[in-house]
Design brief:
Helices cover 37% and strands 24% of the residues. It is an alpha/beta fold. The protein has 2 domains: 130 residues, Response regulator (Rossmann fold, 3-Layer(aba) Sandwich); 223 residues, PPM-type phosphatase domain (Phosphatase 2c, domain 1, 4-Layer Sandwich). A 5-stranded parallel sheet has the order 2-1-3-4-5, sandwiched between helices. It has a 5-stranded antiparallel sheet with strand order 6-15-14-11-12, with helices on one face. Strands 7-8-9-10-13 form a 5-stranded antiparallel sheet. A hairpin with a 2-residue loop joins strand 7 and strand 8. Helix 2 packs parallel to helix 3 and helix 5 runs parallel beside helix 6. It starts with 6 loop residues before the first strand and ends with a strand.
């Protein structure tokens, strides 16, 4: 706790020095002492001090061994280690500091200087506590943002005759800039996948704006081009001169007319697998959103019975394989294109193939979001 007493251990084989330090420091700090390094390690594990006053030359385990235990075995980077030694050998100080000591004081020392050095250590301890408390609050707030954001993403999809949908959402952190959606918009099925630059609360906030604008309707929904145009205008007002931007693939699928109107604004190409085995790449036809004043135009593509559509974010290919090689977009596209003809859930098969390339679980650096659709009713 940030307001709990500062705890100190003294590890020194001199009983006189231990008693002296207890007299100097005992009234202000919660203090324990040990007479050698092995006892000092046991006391450290039991007491978990904030400050360690540590001699170098001691029986059983020396001061360097104690430092190595604290920094390496216990992985404690917070404890402030102040070395106290009468040995003036030139190599001792740099060795102690390189191992993880914070300060170094030669014996015999002046009481005033010792108290000043301990005061510096105390301020460092309190600063570390405050930083950790602040970081904890921020993590909890980001977690709440992530929980709220998750409620904005669909966990199931509305029924469209002849349409099967799979989704995958794996945020890299607790709050994400990715967004996906499938919902009825008038007489069509509207499909959206979007990626906000960056991560964290800011990206999640912009993502919520994009989601709200897509879901916004007056007497009727705007067509897909007009919707994306409105989103771009609003983002330019909200983001202004900031560096944030949004990429997206948005489409209106007409299952009765066997057609799809779509806009790709700086996003990964959608992959459309036709019944004859041909895979069509639906690449960007507009820049990223939030920067430019532009007129959005939609493209149209015919759908055939049994065609499949795969939409994804760039986190799927921006990671290194087991051999340290960057997977890359082209290699991933080839994997995805060949995945259309397999059996079983498309996204499960694809993730299994990625795990094979990674020789285990891929270490994705970015959010993963994907949608797969099969237009089985297009006739």
């Amino acid at each position: 706790m940030a307001d709990s007493p500062v705890k100190i251990i003294v590890v020194d084989d001199s009983a006189t020095l231990r008693l002296t330090l207890e007299r100097f420091l005992g009234a202000r700090y919660e203090l324990r002492s040990a007479e050698d390094g092995a006892e000092g390690i046991r006391l450290y594990e039991e007491f978990r001090p904030d400050i360690v006053l540590l001699d170098i030359n001691m029986p059983v385990v020396d001061g360097f061994g104690v430092i190595e235990h604290i920094r390496n075995a216990a992985r404690d980077t917070d404890a402030f280690i102040l070395m106290l030694t009468a040995d003036e050998e030139a190599t001792l100080k740099p060795r102690a500091l390189n191992l993880g000591a914070n300060d170094f004081l030669l014996k015999p020392f002046d009481r005033t200087e010792l108290m000043a050095r301990v005061g510096v250590a105390e301020r460092q301890v309190m600063l570390t506590r405050n930083l950790r408390a602040t970081a904890g609050r921020l993590r909890r707030e980001i977690a709440q943002v992530g929980q709220l954001q998750a409620t904005l993403l669909p966990t199931s999809f509305p029924e469209f005759e002849g349409l099967r949908v799979e989704s995958l959402y794996m945020p890299s952190g607790q709050a994400s800039g990715d967004y996906y959606d499938v919902f009825p918009a008038g007489g069509v099925c509207r499909v959206v996948i979007a990626d906000v630059s960056g991560h964290g609360a800011r990206a999640a906030f912009i993502m919520a704006i994009v989601r709200t604008l897509f879901r916004l309707r007056g007497p009727r929904y705007q067509d897909i081009a007009a919707t994306v145009d409105t989103i771009n205008e609003q983002l330019r007002e909200v983001i202004g001169a900031e560096s944030d931007f949004v990429t997206l693939f948005a489409a209106d699928i007409d299952l009765t007319g066997n057609s799809m109107e779509y806009v790709n604004a700086g996003h990964c190409p959608g992959l459309l697998h036709h019944a004859d085995g041909r895979v069509e790449s639906l690449g960007p036809d507009a820049p990223v959103l939030g920067f430019f004043d532009m007129a959005i135009k939609a493209r149209s593509v015919k759908l055939t019975p049994g065609c499949q559509l795969f939409l994804f974010t760039d986190g799927f290919y921006e990671w290194a394989t087991a051999g340290g090689e960057h997977l890359g977009a082209e290699r991933f596209w080839e994997m995805a294109a060949s995945n259309f003809t397999g059996r079983g859930p498309f996204l499960d098969r694809l993730m299994e193939r990625l795990r094979g390339v990674a020789d285990g679980t891929p270490r994705f650096r970015d959010d993963l979001t994907a949608l797969w659709m099969s237009m089985e009713g297009a006739e």
